[in-house]
Structures are given as structure tokens and as C-alpha cells.
Specification:
mainly alpha; globular
């Protein structure tokens, strides 16, 4: 099973669901918007199972996992964090090793990680501490 490809599909579904929920809400379809939000939550929780499996796989490196997770839209990262799919520790682990030097990492993803650190009143030094990943 290609965990990273499946995870990418889940994250695309989450991003599309968030966008659709916002459109439905703006057009006055509150019931449909709530159903779409429930679907987003369901997909996010399914992705948690996949992330747990990925973290247990010895042949999938941390860098590969970062490449799969970090180029995400800001809203998607916030949803994953809100549903405890990606914990603060996971985000810190994923953002630790100079994410700006990894090809394909979007600026919005880095900003989302910084927003989560700020929202949780964590010291910025945690993002640069070499000990977290050990």
C-alpha cells in the first residue's frame, strides 16, 4: 500500500471539502455546509490512522513524510490540528529540519505552522531545537 499517495488524496479531499463548505455557507446553505464539515472531519480522522501507520513504517523516512505533509494549504493544516490528526509534537517534528530548504514546501504551510506555534503560546526556539527530533 502506498501510504503517502493515499495520504495525499485524503489531504486533497480535506482541502476541497473546506472550500466547498465555505461556498455553501456563503450561499446560505447552512445544512449542506454542516454536512460538508462533517465529511471533512471524517476524512481528517481517517488520515490520522494513515499518519500513525506511516510513522510506524521503518522504510519511510521523516523527510518523505515531511514532503507529503508540509505543502498543505494553511486551512488544511489548521483542520488537521483542530481534530488532533497532527499533534503539536508532530508539527514541531515535521518543521524542525530547515523546512524552507526542502523543495516543494509552500510558504503558506510554514506560516500555518508558525500560526499554530503562536496560538499555543509555544516558544519559537522549539522550531529550531535540535533535540526534538532525536
Amino acid at each position: 500500500m502506498d501510504y503517502l499517495a493515499d495520504l495525499e488524496i485524503f489531504f486533497e479531499d480535506i482541502s476541497a471539502g473546506i472550500k466547498e463548505a465555505r461556498i455553501l455557507s456563503a450561499s446560505g446553505n447552512a445544512d449542506q455546509s454542516e454536512r460538508m464539515k462533517a465529511r471533512v472531519k471524517f476524512v481528517a480522522l481517517r488520515s490520522k490512522v494513515l499518519i500513525d501507520k506511516i510513522m510506524e513504517e521503518p522504510n519511510i523516512t521523516l523527510l518523505e513524510t515531511k514532503m507529503a505533509l508540509l505543502p498543505l494549504p494553511t486551512r488544511t493544516i489548521k483542520v488537521l490540528h483542530a481534530y488532533n490528526v497532527i499533534t503539536m509534537a508532530d508539527l514541531l517534528r515535521l518543521s524542525l529540519q530547515e523546512v524552507t530548504n526542502i523543495p516543494g514546501v509552500g510558504r503558506q504551510s510554514i506560516i500555518a505552522l508558525q500560526d499554530i506555534v503562536k496560538a499555543n503560546n509555544l516558544p519559537w526556539e522549539l522550531l529550531k531545537s535540535p533535540g526534538i527530533d532525536d
